[in-house]
């Protein structure tokens, strides 16, 4: 009797725990609970996956070559600063291709001095087979190229994850796929376009000086589709170190968007990697702007730059688009600056998010873009529930017809299995997907499989002439190893699917593994408790099996 009592208490404890864990997954019932009970209950239940509640599925690819170009461009800027510091005069320093820096020198002395500087840039090696004697060529090392590309993928992964966390998406999936692809799944997103823009925006923040000495008859405003024409008309007239960038301007009265062209020096004075914070603030005319804070190094550099360029205009450039080009009135200390522009509060907030999360190391290309609507997700839920009910009814009827009263006991174990499974999914705050529902349906079939093994062993014992009580005990004992063996082998497969699978495969693996573990408990403990309660006290001559 002690064993029966112990099993009964264990069964009751599991049932109550499963029910309590499942409560947050059913809001109508959860909301009726008193506040003191909510305080001790979990506040989060099962989360529906992308295919059930709708959302975005994207496969992004990092432009690795552009990541290498950006790294080399920064080396070009650093080299120009070093040449100025050491007072070495050269004709030009520029990047050629993805991985090469070409330095044009005026004489042999300058060439010799420049060649010595390669030791200060360990990522590069000099190409001694340069075609011209007036040219020094540095090539990025192969190992460094590989490192930059791999780092670009990892940095993009982390940056996207940080942006999504600040965007406020529940249960997002952001993971690497293959060599240079990133999979992003955002369940329940209400504004897909905003989410996509936030993810793929490079957010490369740069501070550049306007070249106000160049006199070009640039138009004041052009429409967005006329940018290419302006570039084609005026770029050939620019000095080598200049470029034309456009500022986004929105007419407050009409809402029409224009572009204002500026001549900007290519040299980057400061980049966004020295930012420590970015927040939205409201100006004196209720216009939102982004207040940025530099780290200690960036604050010192920004103070030096503004002190050297008083009364000159500095462009705040994000992804080659000018957000503002204010005149530096005085030296700016304190490590703070503002990004103003004609944008809404939401646009300012999104800009602050991408600046806080950091810039992507290179542009992203969307390889696959799927948007699942909530109505399609609800249809999947309805069909999944219908399939589960049909499978459950068929199994219940078969067990009752074939095993009679014992079959009804097995059906009780099946119901117990489903209750425990839903409770476990809620307790783990697991994400339920359509393949996960398929795993539940499979669990229903497996839920009675163990009982079939036990019942057949009991039948064999009864045919050999044993008493009912002895036949039941012997049936469970003899089927034990077989049941454990079959469950463990399937569990190994489920764990492998979870470890090496992605997305929907993981959802299937979660419900499969939990279902197997719970089925082992319900088959060996749940049904045994019922048999013990029915046949423990009285001597029974026959068993309905």
How would you describe what is shown here?
The two termini are 24 Å apart. The mean pLDDT is 80. Helices cover 52% and strands 19% of the residues. The chain has helices spanning 2-22, 27-30, 35-40, 50-53, 64-85, 108-116, 142-167, 192-200, 227-234, 296-308, 345-357, 374-427, 434-463, 468-500, 504-535; strands at 47-48, 55-62, 92-96, 100-104, 124-126, 135-140, 173-177, 181-187, 205-209, 242-250, 257-265, 270-271, 275-282, 288-294, 314-318, 321-324, 336-339, 364-372, 431-432. A six-stranded mixed β-sheet has the order 11-10-16-15-9-12. Strands 7-8-2-18 form a four-stranded antiparallel β-sheet. The chain has 545 residues and is of the alpha+beta class.
Characteristic key phrases:
545 residues; alpha+beta; six-stranded mixed beta sheet; four-stranded antiparallel beta sheet; 19 strands; 19% strand; elongated
């Amino acid at each position: 009797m002690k064993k029966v009592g112990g099993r009964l208490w264990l069964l009751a404890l599991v049932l109550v725990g499963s029910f309590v864990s499942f409560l947050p997954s059913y809001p109508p019932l959860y909301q009726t609970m008193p506040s003191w009970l909510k305080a001790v209950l979990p506040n989060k239940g099962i989360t529906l996956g992308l295919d059930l509640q709708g959302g975005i599925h994207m496969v992004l690819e990092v432009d690795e070559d552009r990541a290498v170009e950006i790294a080399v461009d920064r080396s070009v800027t650093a080299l120009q600063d070093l040449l100025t510091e050491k007072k070495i005069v050269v004709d030009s320093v520029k990047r050629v291709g993805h991985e090469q820096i070409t330095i044009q020198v005026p004489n042999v002395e300058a060439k010799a001095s420049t060649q010595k500087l390669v030791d200060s840039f360990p990522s590069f090696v000099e190409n001694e087979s340069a075609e011209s004697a007036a040219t020094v060529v540095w090539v990025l090392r192969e190992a460094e190229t590989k490192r930059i590309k791999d780092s670009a993928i990892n940095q993009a992964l982390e940056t996207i994850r940080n942006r999504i966390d600040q965007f406020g998406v529940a249960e997002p999936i952001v993971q690497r796929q293959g060599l240079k692809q990133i999979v992003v799944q955002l369940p329940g997103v209400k504004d897909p376009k905003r989410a996509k823009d936030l993810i793929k925006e490079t957010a490369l923040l740069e501070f550049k000086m306007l070249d106000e000495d160049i006199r070009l008859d640039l138009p004041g405003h052009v429409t967005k589709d006329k940018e290419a024409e302006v570039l084609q008309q005026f770029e050939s007239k620019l000095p080598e170190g200049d470029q034309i960038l456009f500022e986004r301007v929105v007419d407050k009265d009409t809402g029409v968007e224009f572009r204002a062209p500026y001549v900007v020096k290519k040299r980057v004075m400061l980049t966004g990697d020295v930012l420590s914070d970015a927040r939205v603030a409201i100006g004196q005319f209720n216009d939102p702007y982004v207040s940025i804070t530099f780290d200690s190094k960036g604050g010192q550099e920004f103070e030096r730059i503004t002190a050297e360029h008083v009364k000159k205009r500095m462009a705040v450039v994000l992804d080659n688009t000018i957000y503002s080009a204010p005149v530096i009135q005085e030296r700016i200390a304190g490590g703070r600056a503002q990004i103003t522009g004609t944008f809404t509060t939401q646009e300012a907030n999104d800009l602050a998010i991408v600046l806080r999360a950091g810039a992507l190391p290179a542009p992203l290309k969307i390889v696959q873009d799927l948007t699942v609507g909530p109505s399609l997700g609800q249809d999947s839920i309805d069909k999944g529930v219908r399939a589960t009910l049909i499978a459950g009814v068929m199994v219940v009827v078969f067990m009752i017809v074939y095993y009679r009263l014992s079959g009804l006991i097995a059906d009780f174990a099946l119901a117990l299995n489903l209750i425990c499974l839903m409770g476990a999914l809620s307790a783990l705050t697991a994400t339920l997907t359509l393949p996960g529902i398929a795993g539940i349906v499979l669990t229903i079939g497996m839920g009675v499989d163990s009982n079939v093994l036990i019942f057949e062993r009991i039948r064999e014992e009864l045919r050999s002439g044993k008493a009912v009580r002895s036949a039941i005990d012997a049936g469970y004992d003899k089927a034990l190893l077989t049941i454990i063996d079959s469950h463990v082998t399937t569990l190994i497969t489920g764990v492998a699917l979870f470890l090496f699978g992605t997305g929907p495969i993981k959802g299937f693996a979660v419900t499969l593994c939990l279902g197997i573990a719970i089925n082992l408990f319900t088959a060996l403990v749940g049904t045994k408790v019922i048999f013990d309660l029915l046949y423990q006290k009285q001597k029974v001559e026959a068993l309905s099996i």
